[in-house]
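Is this the right way to post structure tokens for a design question? Let me know if I should format differently. Anyway, here goes:
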């Protein structure tokens, strides 16, 4: 059930990230990072291991995406 929810969220956000403007992508990324931090903190505070793991996975995945976006922007800047 948890995996299905993460896959649905990824597909939902992926569609919007594809067509979103730069500031909208930043806003979505900030929301995902904030949600991951809240899930991680709430999972640790309440002792729910799965909730903490999902928050950690969100943070790791978002960090990986941010690195890829930075690399793509640098490569686009060099190409011009």
């Amino acid at each position: 059930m948890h995996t299905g929810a993460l896959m649905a969220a990824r597909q939902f956000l992926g569609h919007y990230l594809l067509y979103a403007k730069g500031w909208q992508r930043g806003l979505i990324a900030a929301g995902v990072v904030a949600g991951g931090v809240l899930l991680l903190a709430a999972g640790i505070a309440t002792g729910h291991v799965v909730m903490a793991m999902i928050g950690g996975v969100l943070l790791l995945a978002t960090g990986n995406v941010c690195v890829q976006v930075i690399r793509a922007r640098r490569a686009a800047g060099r190409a011009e």
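Format looks fine. Someone answered above. Worth noting: DSSP finds three helices and no strands in the chain. Residues 2-79 form one domain.
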